[in-house]
Amino acid sequence: MNTVQRPLRLVGAGAAALALALLPAACGSSDDDSSGTGSGSSEERVGVALITKDSTNPFFVTMQKGAQAEAGKNGVDLTIASGKQDGDETGQIQAIEQAIARGDKGILILSNGPSVENSIKKARDAGLYVIALDTPPSSPDVVDITFATDNREAGRLIGKWTAGQLGGKPATIALLDAFTDKVISVDVQRDQGFLEGMGIDTVDENKNADEAKTGKYSGGDYTIVCNEPGGGAEDGGRTAMETCLSKSDGINVVYTINEPTAVGAQAALKAAGITDALVVSVDGGCAGVQNVKDGIIGATSQQYPLKMATLGMEAIAKIARTGEKPKTTDGLDFFNTGVALVTDKPSDGVESIDTAKGKELCWG
Question: pTM here?
């Protein structure tokens, strides 16, 4: 079990302000600059590459648009790139090589897989400062720093909520991950965090699908029917859920890696005539919050992608100009950009916000 202290969980409207206060090294000063170039108005502009997993997921689109809107304020020449789809490592490697060739000062990246890390090392050897966003690398020292949601805590929140909602009833669980053919940190952390929140022994907290398939959760008995890959997409979620339903029609708990996967899973459940399964997820985009309001998703853990991208961009600009580097959150090996559980059906003892508040804070 993970025993690292997690003192910071930013929840609510003050999250962004608190994050800025806790990370002075990552934040440039605008000094009331009216030229639109912020701290870079009288200095050479700083080249930064933002490399997302794909260019269609609302989470990544929010990062891209938000960073574009903020680039001028920090005197940043921003280049946006991505893989063709979630999991495309080759496209990201090419984008890293292009950033090196352009002479960029830094890279913000949401890695699509292990082979990308070799190219990250090449970029750092070339003098670029590399910040991982959202998806921590296999080891913290692969990048210079990570700005991310505490994904394990995000999983724990939806796991605790689920256990509370079951009220001691047997849990028949489908786990819809992103991939099963490679290890991605965010994939493992959310899955394992969910099981921990349910009170299920994860055996190896850094590996999916090695937990006992039957046993006890915090409220009663559980059975894990399947670990299926949905690829983080709606169609993949539906296909994965259909595979799980072919193994059992008694599924009443569905964990999903993200909200598009959850929507696909719910479509498969509806087609099978199952209307009472608890479907939980992570992301907190505006569409996802609406899905919670509409009852498609029971609860979701909301994260804040715009904050990740803008703070990361500001950090690289400041490093390039002053050499001052950002710091990790106390007790963690990354900077925590916050998480909040969004649901209209609270579980006792689990802190949450409702969909009205979630709408105020959502993105996409």
Answer: 0.80
